[in-house]
Specification:
Layout lengths: L1 E2 L5 H6 L11 H5 L4 E6 L5 E8 L2 E8 L4 E6 L4 E9 L2 E9 L11 E9 L4 E3 L14 E7 L2 E8 L2 E4 L4 E4 L5 E6 L5 E5 L5 E6 L5 E8 L4 E6 L8 E4 L5 E6 L5 E6 L6 E6 L5 E3 L6 E6 L6 E6 L5 E3 L2 H12 L5 E7 L5 E8 L2 E9 L4 E7 L12 E7 L5 E7 L9 E5 L16 H8 L3 E5 L9 H5 L8 H15 L3 E11 L1 H9 L10 E4 L5 H12 L5 H10 L1 H4 L2 H5 L13 E6 L8 H12 L4 E6 L9 H18 L4
Parallel strand pairs: 1-30, 33-34, 33-35, 35-36, 36-37, 37-38
Antiparallel strand pairs: 2-3, 3-4, 4-5, 6-7, 7-8, 8-9, 10-11, 11-14, 12-13, 14-15, 16-17, 17-18, 18-19, 20-21, 21-22, 22-23, 24-25, 25-26, 27-28, 28-29, 29-30, 31-32, 32-34
């Protein structure tokens, strides 16, 4: 295969790369991607994407040969996903804090889906059903039946009529509805119970199987169809780590992931007789690859080369050919047509801040169609590489080191940037906008995959349980020591920055630990584990079940009681803080409430410690809005520069 200059005039006009000269400002790293969410239709005849065109973000659809088919301004809407039901129906997933008053389970980010027809018609899913809450709780695929295209969605049902406000909430778990994607007509397919958690819809539109999880006793069951006949599988899963993933490789089968033991087990279950076949998977699975036409499992996206593995050798050969056309870069398979005749792949790393490519097997071409960060040129990208080291207890750990472009890798100032999660999440080599912003300012950046991170096996993941604020924390400082030993960084010029759990780790780095970091920046990090845990139970209605057991296991409270939570709470150790702290938090955060940062700020002020607090109005946990995302990055980089100058 060969690379070629993008030959599509429409693509070049819509997705042109900025050619401004000079080093990019910090805002360039904080802006939302110039193009994202690129998705091929099942036939490969067209593709959809979100792009910034001028000053406006738009949803666009182009034919494969570059002809514009659809365009709509999306403004500041938080678009989470684009999914083709078929070539004529595009489903757009958005989210916002819920406005459903009857769902009295505290604030949460609710998903809504809008159907955009290529005939110009569009409507929100459940618009024609006044007895269903204005949110979508799961999408379970589509079918073609009797000349109609139907989508299957989870919906929370009201009794009565919403239009007259004479309604009441019967339950907060989703039933399954069939929606005609041309007319919007909605039909109830299956009623759920409080134990129903997963559904698989067959190609004929019937409910093939469903899973249940009993919060009280931790039992997970797989049942055929939509009724309550004898379970095909019944297992004990104390923290609910068994999942029904979708269709198997062929008719009458479903895919189940069991993470209760070591190693993880992928099983294809026959719904007819319950027979299970364990699938051999190469590496840690990051995504599951399903045929966009029929929904059957065709492969997996994993953490090792060549990243995507297909059961069909023909498909594997086509994918390998696409990778060979783009040597020297990290390559991600983003989207593909039936039979992988056409693919969307994304490259980054080295001197690439993120490029989307349109691959056509028939012509042997890979054409660039858009850029994630068009203001950030090749010379602006800091090189990234893996660094391996041992934790104090001998555990092997690796992390991603990003170096400032053009600087000699000796005794550099460091920004420690631990990922969120914390369990079953990881950082990888490639372009990371947070890390690259600090690298552009002259800092080395280290992102360690501490114990509990994904990609290193079940034992490594489970090693994180009970180590919140303990060995997961010292894994970070052990990484600092390893970089010092290699002569890469200056041990007297280190700050710690992070979001979510990474924000917690930043606070813990200057309270639970001392003498390591010159400053700390926490973006939406929890600070008082006991109150945070209590907030989840109170606001989200968690019963003493899987979610509660999970949090107690992660924090160590299942073994040591609530004293474990108090001992790892930075807000309760504010008088130990030995470096200036910057707190940044979105006002509309429904994952970690802003009260966690407010409590930390109050505790630090009471202890007469240096603290700044930036509140981001209207922002959520994921920094979804460009204005506040840029404001966060500018404030954080300026704070690090002030307390840990790069020069």
């Amino acid at each position: 295969m060969k690379k070629s200059t993008c030959c599509f005039v429409a693509v070049a006009a819509w997705l042109a790369m900025t050619v401004a000269r000079g080093a990019p400002p910090v805002e360039a790293y904080g802006r939302l991607p110039g193009v994202e969410r690129v998705q091929l239709s099942p036939s490969g005849a067209r593709y959809a994407f979100i792009a910034t065109i001028g000053e406006k973000r738009r949803l666009g659809v182009l034919s494969f040969d570059g002809k514009p088919l659809f365009s709509s301004e999306v403004g500041d809407a938080k678009i989470r996903d684009l999914t083709w039901a078929d070539d004529a129906h595009l489903l757009v997933t958005l989210s916002s804090p819920t406005a459903e008053p009857l769902l009295s389970i505290g604030a949460f980010e609710a998903a809504e889906m809008i159907e955009f027809g290529m005939d110009g018609k569009s409507f929100p899913i459940f618009q024609s059903a006044p007895n269903i809450a204005r949110l979508v709780a799961g999408y379970y695929g589509s079918t073609h039946l009797d000349g109609h295209v139907y989508g299957y969605f989870g919906g929370i049902t009201y009794a009565g009529a919403r239009m007259t406000e004479q309604y009441r909430l019967t339950h907060t778990y989703p039933d399954i509805y069939r929606v005609d994607l041309d007319s919007g007509q909605t039909t109830l397919e299956a009623e759920a119970s409080h134990n129903d958690r997963g559904w698989v819809v067959g190609r004929d539109g019937s409910i093939l199987a469903h899973s249940e999880y009993d919060e009280s006793d931790g039992k997970w069951r797989l049942r055929p169809g939509k009724g309550y006949s004898k379970p095909l599988i019944e297992k004990i899963s104390p923290i609910h780590n068994i999942g029904l993933l979708g269709l198997g490789r062929g008719p009458g089968t479903v895919l189940v992931l069991d993470q209760t033991g070591d190693p993880d087990v992928f099983e294809e279950i026959s719904v007819a007789d319950g027979k299970a076949e364990e699938l051999t998977i190469h590496g840690y699975v990051e995504d599951y690859l399903f045929d966009p036409d029929n929904g059957y499992l065709i492969g997996t996206d994993v953490d090792q080369e060549p990243h995507a593995f297909f059961f069909d050798r023909k498909l594997q050969a086509r994918y390998n050919g696409a990778r060979k056309a783009l040597p020297g870069y990290e390559v991600e398979l983003v989207s593909f047509s039936h039979d992988l005749a056409r693919m969307i792949v994304k490259t980054d790393g080295n001197d690439d801040s993120g490029t989307y490519w349109l691959v056509d097997i028939a012509t042997g071409k890979a054409d660039p169609l858009g850029y994630s960060y068009p203001e950030i040129h090749r010379s602006d990208v800091g090189p990234t590489s893996w660094i391996k080291y041992k934790a104090a207890d001998g555990l092997d750990i690796e992390g991603v080191l990003t170096l400032p472009p053009g600087r000699k890798p000796e005794k550099l100032p460091l920004v420690m940037l631990p990922h969120g999660g914390p369990i079953d999440v990881r950082d990888r080599v490639g372009f990371d906008w947070w890390a690259q912003a600090y690298a552009a300012a002259g800092y080395a950046v280290f992102q360690p995959n501490y114990r509990g991170s994904s990609g290193y096996g079940t034992e490594f993941r489970q090693a994180g349980y009970g180590q919140w604020g303990r060995k997961m924390q010292t894994d970070l400082s052990d990484g600092v020591a390893a970089l010092v030993a290699q002569g890469l960084i200056d041990p007297k010029r280190v700050c710690i920055v992070g979001g979510s759990y990474g924000g917690y780790a930043a606070l813990a780095g200057v309270t639970l630990q001392n003498g390591i970091y010159r400053c700390a920046v926490s973006v939406a990090g929890p600070s008082d584990m006991q109150s945070f845990f209590g907030w989840q139970i109170e606001k989200h209605g968690y019963t003493p079940g899987g979610a509660t057991r999970y949090w107690r296991a992660v924090t160590g409270a299942d073994k040591e009681g609530d004293v474990a939570m108090r001992s790892i709470s930075p807000a309760l150790l504010a008088d130990h803080a030995d470096a200036p702290i910057l707190l940044i938090h979105g006002k509309d955060d429904t994952v970690v409430p802003i009260e966690q940062s407010e409590e930390m700020a109050a505790a630090l002020k009471k202890a007469k410690k240096a603290v700044d607090f930036v509140v981001m109005p209207g922002e959520d946990h994921w920094l979804s809005h460009e204005a506040t995302r840029v404001a966060m990055l500018k404030a954080a980089v300026a704070f690090v520069k002030e307390h840990n100058p790069a020069d």
